Amino acid sequence: MSSPAVVWDPALLAYNLGDDHPFNPVRLDLTIRLATALGVLEDVPFLVPEPAVAEQLYRAHTAEYVEAVRQAPMAGWDVGHGLGTPDNPVFTDMHEASALVVGSTLLGARRIAEGRALRAVNIAGGLHHAMGDRASGFCVYNDCVVAISWLLDHGFDRIAYVDTDVHHGDGVQAAFYSDPRVLTISLHQHPFTLFPGTGYAGEIGEGAAGGRAVNLPLPPATKDAGWFRAFHAVVPSVLAAFRPQILVTQCGVDSHVEDPLADLSLTVDGHRAIYRTLREFADTFAEGRWLAVGGGGYQLIRVVPRSWTHLLATVLDRDVDPTTPLPRAWTEQVLAMAPKAEVPARMTDGQDGAEPSFSRWGDGMDDPVDIAVRDTRRAVFPLHGLDPDDPRD
């Protein structure tokens, strides 16, 4: 078994919706630079992706939509399919750049399926909002759906997808809503308060896939302790009942308290703890198989590079001490790009870098997070043979 796989190529920076767009690829560049400066990527050979071909894209998208993406830069702004909007503006070589993101996640999936790695990570992936026939939420092609679909055809029939982005993983849920082979779990800010307006506890899958969609909508301002309280009250029990063969995780970091587009209140230390927990769950429930992708995250300097450096380090078993100072060379690079930027001093948001503490669900607390947990457990736990009111389940 080879070392964990890291998929990266500077060509992925071409997925660029515009200099003034929140989804700025500088966040990827700064992450790779920071991980390199800290030694996380030392002697790690990058897997260099190729763009997904049309037949691979058709796993997630209609032929009409793929052709619309191809033609959009030449057709102008009135192209339909969610293209040419403020969220998804048309840009040069849009099809090629978007297909490369898909090819990157697919490469990581293939490396795991072939038994050449237990883990793979693609921080440029995680475009979980794209639908079969339209772009949505900064996402043109849905790399998560393509990779999961490919895995289903290459030896896997129980795949668990866990989405920790602040936004609901609607595109992935929609693609597999009636497929009992795929469990989709999404923890996100409550849809009444945030795009895309889906992801209620009552969205549980349909037909034979009843219970395979698990949604945990959290109230705005939820902090690390509440987030982990909810996560541990739902996710491990459902994973244990489903028995996945591989864990696919979307690791968006727009849940951070400083993110400008959402209202949860997690920290970089919370993100680091999420990744360490997902690694543990992959080992416990999926024989170590873990495909991790990026996602949202719009505090481009203070949050994304640190959080995703922790993700890369966790996948590689090179965990970074959160009290580690940020390298001076990296800080100088940031200030050369953005002289007025407030650059954090260390790899933690706290004083000692301690992982968040939290009380377990069922300890007698009764707040909006607990209500969300109860709603989710009562919606899906019975469909997995679990008791929604027993905190031991």
TrEMBL record:
MF terms (GO), sorted A to Z: histone deacetylase activity
Positions of the Histone deacetylase domain: 21-314
Keywords: Acetoin catabolism
Gene3D superfamilies named in the record: Histone deacetylase domain
InterPro entries: AcuC, HDACs, His_deacetylse_dom, His_deacetylse_dom_sf, Ureohydrolase_dom_sf
Source species, domain of life: Bacteria
Region of interest called Disordered, as start-end residue ranges on this chain: 346-366
GO terms for biological process, alphabetical: acetoin catabolic process; epigenetic regulation of gene expression
Pathway: Ketone degradation; acetoin degradation
Record-stated family: Belongs to the histone deacetylase family.
Annotated protein name in UniProt: Acetoin utilization protein AcuC
Organism for this UniProt entry: Saccharomonospora xinjiangensis XJ-54
